Amino acid sequence: MADSSSLQPTILTTPTALGPIVRARRKAQLLRIDDTAALIGVSVDLMSRLENGHGSVRLDKALAVLDGLGLMLMVLPKEHLWVHEAATAKAALPSSVTSDPNFEARQT
C-alpha cells in the first residue's frame, strides 16, 4: 500500500527530477528494474537512463513508464490552483527535508 507521501503532487523543476520519482515508485512496488522494463515493454537501458537522468528519453517512452508504474504527468499553467497548493505543501516542510537531494524521490 502506498504511503501518504505517494499521494502528494510533485513539481518537477529540472530535467533529472523525474528519475528519482520513477525509481522510488518502482522500488515501492518491490520491482527490479529488469522486471519493470519487461512488464512495461521498454528496455532496461531506457529505464536506467530515465532513473539516473542520463541521456534523453522520448516522451512517449517516459509516459509509458509512468503509466506502467501508476503515475501520471500533468501539464498545468503555473498560476493553476494545484500548482500553488503543491508549492505551498512543499514550502511547509522543514528545510532539512526539502534540501535533501532525495526529497523529490520521496514525493511518490
UniProtKB/TrEMBL annotation:
PROSITE patterns for the chain: HTH_CROC1 (PS50943)
GO MF annotation list: DNA binding
Pfam families: HTH_31
InterPro entries hit by this protein: Cro/C1-type_HTH, Lambda_DNA-bd_dom_sf
Gene3D superfamilies in the cross-refs: lambda repressor-like DNA-binding domains
Domain annotation HTH cro/C1-type: ranges: 22-81
The name this protein goes by in its record: Helix-turn-helix domain-containing protein
Lineage of origin: Bacteria, Pseudomonadati, Pseudomonadota, Betaproteobacteria, Burkholderiales
